[in-house]
């Protein structure tokens, strides 16, 4: 289980997250929604340890990890696919995967893990020896997700996986995500601007606005209440 | 603490106090020991040399580890002219100074293209080459043995115009020169030249977007710095009467760097204080001179980390960049403008039509913009909208000249501006703002806005360096204009606070205001409302409406639909680099393609 | 022809020294994109420490190990107190000036502790008279040792970077340390490790080069850092093979020009080459094309 208690994040004078509390039970998928600048990315970053925690606590598996550095949290089973489609552009697809695997939990054999990825994303097998920086946006996102999941994480943080991608690729990506969540029982947190997309695949949702939670509840209910449309309308 | 700093600064820059000190030194020289006069002469030279680093590194941000080369250039040229060719000191010093300025100019070609560690190495190399040349060129420089016999007051051989000068009078001459130099440096700092230096130091991209040429500005900085260092060297040559290569080695470059850093890069007062301390210290503290090298090393190792702004940062108020006389002149004008009046009295150049034709931009294998065409008309606000990664920022970057397009054209007022560098596009009247405000953090709002007027001012750097009336008058005019822009954008209360001390919302507003000072015909606003509160958004909307009333051509990128809905005339929607919709906002909300792009395919089926 | 060959050979010899220095400089560049301006002082300090320990009765091997250890500690100090804090500020000048300052402090301390005169440095491996003949010309074995070590290092380092997971981690860290941390890489430890390795390489270079010259004094090393830097730039910052080729090219060029024109031109030539390189091909000869979208 992942728990955030009154978490605060600020960068210098800018308060990005102003006291957010979230509970994500083991094996569930949680959607974090909101417009640009609402604080979604900062929230994910403070969970993985990249952003400094100004206040509050973060609890992972009943352990307070607030003071544990990011590298150690990663070893505890946390994987974070960061915003901005970040991967090691100078390394090839295969090197990226191998690197992610070698510093992860290593529960599966490397060759098996890679074969599995190529089966789900066949295009990556073709591009295995290509430097990641030369792939298209969608392919890069596939690599990023594969790198995150190849580590067999128990907690998967995804920052706007659909960002700037064509709808058909988005469908592929989301199939992969839901598939992985089902197989592994990992706890997944997805930050998205595409409200309906995230709500459809999650159990619960939180809407952020200027660093605070303004709405929360079961995803089904949020969808039914037209939150998705309202959100899209207000920022679309 | 601030009050202490302000008081101390007022004291240190009080013209009457300074005049009194200078006069006291000049007159008192007759009663000082020869040793003291000698040291004081060195202090003056050291000040001028430190000012050369202050300008190049402190203001313009170009590190130099080889400044002894410029100093030595001035020294040797002067020394050789005076000794070997018998040229009078009155001529040899200026020639030496200009020789160093010329070398600075030449150095700016390779050095201006690199930065950081490469620049450090290059300047280091330059210093060492100079040292080698001086050491080997026996015939001209005397090689290792050095050049002796340069006319000097110490040896009673200095005779300008046939009159023998003693040390005291030479000191007075140097004192005068130093005072003049300090005065000119202060004028330069507080002029558009100084602001331009500081701007390319802190944000080269923003400087370019304001019409400030990076290469040209750097070149100027190198020349001025060379002139100063050369002047110091030339005076040094005549003071000491003997030139040996060891005086122009790396140690000298290190020493002046230490002085400049400890004094506080960017602060003239700091340099004066530091130069005085470091010239006296080896003389008075025996211990210091033994451990001098180690002390310098320790200072260099920790000072930029521990005390990045030096003594000046600790004790004095930060230096300002506006000529006080211009401010006074401006304030004498009766304040006529009301907000509405400002809109009318500010004759905006008629906004023109901005056309984008089939613009394509590829990055390696990625197509960021695919055949994008659109037209922006004057007096209309067009919104550019789309999911993240759809190419909006890339489009603005290509139009404003930060990126070169792979294909297609951009035209403004009938003129082809495709692919021009960013500062030229700004000069053509198309101005943009940045998502993360590229303001100079240590400039006040007013100074940042004055920077926005850079391309419009016509007075010469020379004029502002000497504080000539025409230059002061033009600055005052622009300050008046800026006052009106601040009225328009409701920033007047914060005019003299530094940007870094203001809340985030103000930076965005200042960024827009700065773009306005340039009196653009077209303005591209890149997410100006990001991070603003509702109140601040209303403030911004008011400003944008006023700009529309003035007839500007406006493009606005943003995500906040309620903000845009009331403001905008047309909307263009991008997705994956292509235009998928053109029309009104209401039309966009019900357009199938747009909905599916934002919401995903399934929604489109249900919608 | 003989003169030409002997100049080339001399160039290869000194060039291998430049290469060794460049290799050491590269290591910190991999992880932090910084260069230690005090690298030359570390070289000198290691050599002077060895002389000191030897004079206290320690066996050569012991003295060498102890000196290298001390220098490794200095490397950690440099990372922790001069580079890391400087990198936090957004001033890129910070670490240049502070590593330079540290080098000066070391130089001053060495002068205070060991005197500023040159001291004799013993031959550790091979004597100064040991040579082999190549095409009828004498080649010093001591220089050959440096060349051999450089080549060996290039092979080892390249293999390390390309084929081991820690090597890949090193490459990753310089490009995107946050991404590395999120993937579980101990970024801090990697950075510290790189500074230790760089310091050890500096120390080793100091020992091997001092034995060639036969003496060492506090000012030794500074010039070499500049040549090493030029070699690294010519070869491409961060490229091991580039450091080797760059160093040798630089050595040969400067010796040829020094031989045919004037020996005083050797140093200026290096800087002329630097300026040319930065103007024409700033990424060096073996630059890797950057696969960025911008």
Give the topology, please.
The complex is a heterotrimer of chains A (236), B (607) and C (294).
Chain A: E1 2-11, E2 14-24, E3 29-33, H1 40-48, E4 55-60, E5 63-64, H2 70-75, E6 78-81, H3 93-102, H4 110-120, H5 122-126, H6 137-149, E7 155-159, H7 167-184, E8 187-192, H8 195-201, E9 204-209, E10 212-218, H9 219-224, H10 227-235
Parallel strand pairs in A: 3-8, 3-9, 6-7, 7-8
Antiparallel strand pairs in A: 1-2, 1-4, 4-5, 9-10
Chain B: H1 2-13, H2 15-28, H3 34-59, H4 68-84, H5 89-111, H6 116-136, H7 138-141, E1 147-148, H8 167-189, H9 192-202, H10 204-209, H11 214-240, E2 242-243, H12 250-263, H13 268-284, H14 286-290, H15 292-306, H16 310-315, H17 324-332, H18 339-345, E3 354-363, E4 366-376, E5 381-385, H19 392-399, E6 407-412, E7 415-416, H20 422-427, E8 430-432, H21 445-452, H22 461-465, H23 469-488, H24 504-517, E9 522-526, H25 534-549, E10 553-557, H26 561-565, E11 570-575, E12 578-583, H27 585-589, H28 592-599, H29 601-606
Parallel strand pairs in B: 5-10, 5-11, 8-9, 9-10
Antiparallel strand pairs in B: 1-2, 3-4, 3-6, 6-7, 11-12
Chain C: H1 2-32, H2 39-55, H3 60-88, H4 93-114, E1 119-120, E2 131-134, E3 137-140, H5 141-163, H6 165-175, H7 177-182, H8 187-213, E4 215-216, H9 222-235, H10 240-260, H11 266-280
Give a structural overview.
The complex is a heterotrimer of chains A (236), B (607) and C (294). Chain A has 10 helices and 10 strands. By secondary structure, chain A is of the alpha/beta class. Chain A has a 6-stranded mixed sheet, sandwiched between helices. A 4-stranded antiparallel sheet of chain A has the order 2-1-4-5, covered by helices on one side. In chain A, α3 runs parallel beside α6 (137-149) and α6 (137-149) runs parallel beside α7. Chain A is globular, with a radius of gyration of 17 Å. Chain A starts with a strand and ends with a helix. The model of chain A has no long low-confidence stretch (mean pLDDT 88). In chain B, strands 8-9-10-5-11-12 form a 6-stranded mixed sheet, with helices on both faces. A 4-stranded antiparallel sheet of chain B has the order 4-3-6-7, covered by helices on one side. The longest helix of chain B is centred in the middle third of the chain and has 27 residues, at 214-240. Chain B is α/β, with parallel strands linked by helices and 607 residues long. Mean pLDDT of chain B is 85; it is low at 336-348 and 599-607. Chain B is 59% helix and 10% strand. Chain C is mainly alpha-helical and 294 residues long. Helices cover 73% and strands 4% of the residues of chain C. Chain C is built from 11 helices and 4 strands; from the N terminus they run ααααβββααααβααα. Chain C has a two-stranded antiparallel sheet with strand order 1-4. A two-stranded antiparallel ribbon of chain C has the order 2-3. In chain C, α5 (141-163) crosses α6. The longest helix of chain C is centred in the N-terminal third of the chain and has 31 residues, at 2-32. The radius of gyration of chain C is 19 Å and the shape is globular. Classes of the chains: A alpha/beta (236), B alpha/beta (607), C mainly alpha (294). At the B-C interface, α6, α12 and α15 of B face α3, α4, α9 and α11 of C.
């Amino acid at each position: 289980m992942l728990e955030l208690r009154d978490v605060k994040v600020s960068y210098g004078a800018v308060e990005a997250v102003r006291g957010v509390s979230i509970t994500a039970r083991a094996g569930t998928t949680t959607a974090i929604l909101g417009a640009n600048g609402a604080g979604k990315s900062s929230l994910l970053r403070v969970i993985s340890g990249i952003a400094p925690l100004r206040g509050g606590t973060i609890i992972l598996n009943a352990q307070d990890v607030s003071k544990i550095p990011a590298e150690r949290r990663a070893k505890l089973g946390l994987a974070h696919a960061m915003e901005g489609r970040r991967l090691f552009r100078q390394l090839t697809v295969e090197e990226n995967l191998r690197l992610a695997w070698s510093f992860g939990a290593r529960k599966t054999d490397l060759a098996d893990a890679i074969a599995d990825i190529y089966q789900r994303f066949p295009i990556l097998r073709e591009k295995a020896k290509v430097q990641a920086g030369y792939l298209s946006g969608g392919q890069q996102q596939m690599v990023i997700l594969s790198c995150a999941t190849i580590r067999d994480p128990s907690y998967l943080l995804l920052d706007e996986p659909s960002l700037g991608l064509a709808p058909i690729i988005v469908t592929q990506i989301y199939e992969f995500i839901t598939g992985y969540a089902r197989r592994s029982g990992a706890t997944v947190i997805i930050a998205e601007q595409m409200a309906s997309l995230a709500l459809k695949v999650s159990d619960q949702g939180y809407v952020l606005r200027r660093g605070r939670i303004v709405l929360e509840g079961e995803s089904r209910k949020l969808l039914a209440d037209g939150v998705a449309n309202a959100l899209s309308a207000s920022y679309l | 603490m601030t009050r202490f700093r302000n008081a101390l600064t007022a004291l240190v820059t009080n013209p009457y106090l300074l005049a009194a000190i200078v006069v006291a030194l000049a007159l008192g020289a007759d009663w000082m020991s020869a040793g003291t006069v000698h040291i004081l002469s060195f202090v003056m030279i050291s000040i001028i040399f430190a000012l050369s680093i202050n300008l190049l590194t402190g203001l313009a941000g170009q590190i130099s580890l080889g400044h002894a080369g410029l100093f030595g250039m001035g020294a040797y040229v002067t020394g050789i002219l005076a000794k070997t060719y018998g040229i009078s000191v009155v001529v040899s010093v200026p020639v030496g100074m200009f020789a160093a300025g010329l070398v600075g100019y030449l150095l700016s070609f390779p050095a201006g293209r690199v930065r950081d560690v490469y620049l450090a190495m290059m300047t280091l190399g330059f210093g060492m080459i100079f040292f080698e040349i001086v050491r080997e060129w026996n015939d001209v420089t005397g090689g290792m043995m050095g050049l002796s016999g340069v006319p000097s007051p110490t040896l009673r051989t200095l005779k300008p115009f046939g009159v023998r000068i003693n040390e005291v009078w030479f000191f007075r001459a140097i004192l005068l020169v130093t005072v003049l130099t300090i005065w000119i440096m202060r004028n330069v700092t507080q002029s558009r030249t100084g602001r331009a230096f500081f701007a390319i130091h802190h944000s080269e991209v923003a400087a370019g977007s304001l019409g400030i040429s990076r290469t040209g500005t750097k070149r100027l900085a190198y020349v001025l710095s060379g002139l100063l260092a050369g002047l110091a060297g030339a005076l040094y040559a005549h003071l000491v009467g003997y030139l040996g290569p060891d005086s122009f080695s790396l140690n000298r470059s290190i020493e002046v760097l230490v002085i400049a850093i400890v004094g506080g890069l960017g602060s003239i007062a700091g340099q004066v204080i530091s130069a005085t301390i470091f010239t006296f210290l080896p003389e008075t503290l025996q211990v210091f001179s033994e451990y001098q090298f180690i002390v310098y090393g320790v200072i260099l190792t920790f000072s930029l980390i521990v005390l990045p702004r030096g003594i000046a940062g600790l004790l004095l108020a930060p230096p300002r960049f506006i000529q006080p006389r211009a401010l006074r002149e401006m304030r004498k004008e009766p304040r006529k403008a009301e907000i509405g009046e400002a809109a009318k009295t500010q004759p905006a150049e008629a906004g023109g039509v901005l056309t984008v034709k089939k613009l394509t931009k590829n990055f390696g294998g990625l197509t960021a913009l695919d055949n994008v065409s659109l037209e922006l008309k004057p007096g209309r606000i067009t919104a550019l909208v789309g999911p993240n990664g759809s190419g909006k920022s890339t489009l603005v970057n290509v139009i404003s000249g930060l990126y070169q397009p792979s294909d297609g054209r951009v035209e403004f007022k009938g003129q082809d501006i495709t692919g021009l560098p960013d500062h030229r596009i700004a000069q053509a009247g198309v101005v943009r703002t940045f998502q993360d405000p590229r303001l100079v953090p240590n400039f006040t709002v007013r100074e940042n806005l004055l920077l926005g007027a850079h391309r419009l001012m016509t007075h010469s750097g020379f004029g502002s360096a000497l504080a000539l009336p025409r230059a002061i008058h033009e600055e005052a005019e622009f300050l008046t204009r800026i006052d009106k822009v601040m009225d328009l954008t409701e920033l007047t209360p914060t005019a003299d606070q530094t940007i870094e001390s203001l809340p985030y919302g103000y930076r965005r507003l200042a960024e827009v205001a700065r773009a306005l000072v340039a009196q653009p015909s077209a303005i591209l606003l890149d997410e100006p409302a990001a991070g603003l509160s509702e109140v601040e958004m209303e403030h911004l909307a008011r400003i944008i409406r006023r700009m529309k009333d003035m007839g500007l051509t406006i493009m606005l990128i943003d995500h906040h639909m309620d903000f845009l809905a009331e403001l905008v005339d047309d909307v263009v929607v991008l997705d994956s680099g292509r235009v998928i919709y053109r029309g009104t906002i209401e039309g966009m909300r019900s357009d199938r393609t747009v909905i599916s792009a934002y919401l995903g395919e399934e929604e489109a089926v249900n919608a | 022809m003989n003169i030409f060959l002997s100049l080339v050979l001399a160039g290869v010899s000194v060039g291998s020294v430049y290469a060794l220095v460049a290799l050491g400089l590269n290591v910190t560049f991999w992880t932090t994109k910084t260069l230690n301006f005090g690298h030359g002082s570390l070289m000198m300090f290691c050599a002077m420490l060895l002389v000191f320990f030897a004079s206290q009765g320690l066996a050569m091997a012991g003295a060498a190990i102890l000196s290298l250890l001390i220098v490794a500690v200095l490397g950690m100090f440099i990372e922790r107190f001069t580079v890391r804090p400087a990198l936090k500020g957004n001033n890129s000048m910070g670490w240049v000036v502070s590593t330079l300052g540290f080098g000066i402090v070391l130089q001053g301390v060495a002068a205070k502790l060991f005197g500023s005169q040159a001291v004799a440095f013993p031959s550790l491996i091979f004597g100064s008279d040991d040579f082999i003949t190549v095409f009828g010309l004498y080649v010093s074995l001591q220089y050959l040792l440096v060349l051999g070590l450089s080549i060996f290092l290039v092979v080892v380092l390249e293999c390390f970077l390309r084929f081991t997971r820690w090597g890949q981690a090193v490459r990753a860290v310089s490009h995107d340390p946050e991404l590395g941390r999120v993937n579980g890489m101990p970024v801090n430890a990697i950075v510290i490790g790189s500074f230790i390795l760089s310091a050890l390489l500096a120390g080793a270079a100091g020992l091997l080069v001092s034995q060639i010259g036969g003496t060492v004094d506090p000012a030794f090393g500074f010039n070499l850092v500049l040549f090493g830097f030029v070699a690294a730039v010519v070869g491409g910052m961060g490229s091991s093979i580039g450091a080797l080729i760059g160093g040798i090219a630089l050595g040969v060029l400067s010796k040829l020009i020094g031989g045919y024109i004037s020996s005083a031109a050797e140093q200026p030539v290096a800087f002329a080459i630097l300026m040319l390189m930065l103007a024409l091909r700033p990424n060096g000869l073996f630059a890797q094309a950057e696969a960025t979208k911008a």
